[in-house]
Amino acid sequence: MSSPYHLLWRAAPASAVAAGLIAVVVGITSSAAIVFTAARAAGADQAELASWMLALGVGMGVTCIGLSLRYRAPVVTAWSTPGAALMASGLHGATMAQAVGAFLLSAALITVCGVTGWFERGMDRIPVPLAAGLLAGVLLEFGTRLFSSMHGTGFAVVFPMFAAYLLSRRWMPRYAVIAALLTGLVAAAAQGSLHLGGVRFHVAQPVFTAPDFSWRVLISVGLPLFVVTMASQNLPGVAVLRGDGYDVPVSPLIGWTGGINLLLAPLGCFGLNLAAITAAICTGREAHENPRRRYTAAVWAGIFYLCVAIFGGAVGSLLTALPPALVAGIAGLGLLGTIGGSLSSALSDERWREAAVVTFLTTASGVTLLGVGSAFWGLLAGLCTAFVTHARHRPAPPAPARTGQRQQPDRSRT
């Protein structure tokens, strides 16, 4: 019979809890300011802004926990960061009711893509090296930011984190990211850049907004929100799962995120999707040595997202509490293994190598065309390269005759 300590260890291994926490911290701190800007563009007041964070936190928490437990895979969801950036400029002059109408349209289209299987059928035709190149390109910025943040005052925070990570990788590799995070918090506190005193916690309340379907807002915000969420978020999100060996059925994941989004849209949930960058923190070996147990990291991420939902109004003050250098450093360290594995997978097959490199470089460039992010254009560029250069599987040459078998004479010559 298992002891209570053993059961607790299986449900809450320290590395998985830390990975889930880091994923949430990185996800919130890296883009919550964009969400606030989008809400303000729609005229949201403080109560409505807290409702947005409540709805998004509940949506991400429920989908992270439910989907990860259902498929025993680290399925991490997130809000649509490029979608929030798009709304920050597209919702000017629109009302909250019109914004909710756009959220509902986007969520309905995502749900249809999941229920019909259209998105999954498209993903099944993407070669693994191109998907790996796509993932490496998405994560490259976070890897380089680890070192670019060692500039000025950031050096005193990030360099000790990097040193702690390296030493931990030598003697206790499972806890390397945890050690780096704790070191960063201590360094930031010693430097005086950690301002937790200004954080105020209060419970968020839901604010229901009836939708108003304005054709102008639906076309200018609703449809682009759907496109960028699928192309710039769900696409690399699937690449993360498959790149780390999790062959999870895609259609139910897309369908459930779209369906939950539909239910929570009147409360301010503008876009739920599969995470890429934060998911990679939970799918790597730092989350758990056993790949079959890494789903616990995503479950803990969901639990922490539910905490964010409850205290949605405090997220703004938390943003100013952590120095940007600490967030950049812990994100980069948590993704080092995933970046290396993605590059190895992208370049391992010579037939697809050139196309994978084009995918990687285009995605890493951050190019945005027609409001669609570089993940979509990187994949498109890689597929075009593969098509033009005929980088496809060729039939294998005929096997040589077995030893001892009599060779048939070549009668083609006289």
TrEMBL record:
GO molecular function, one term: benzoate transmembrane transporter activity
Domain of life (superkingdom): Bacteria
Keyword Membrane attached: yes
Keyword tags: Membrane, Transmembrane, Transmembrane helix
Name of the protein: Benzoate transporter
Residue spans crossing the bilayer: 12-37, 49-69, 96-119, 126-144, 175-193, 213-232, 295-319, 325-343, 355-380
UniProt key word Cytoplasm: no
Chain spans, region Disordered: 394-414
Gene Ontology cellular component terms for the protein in this record: plasma membrane
Pfam families reported in the protein's UniProt record: BenE
NCBIfam families assigned: benE
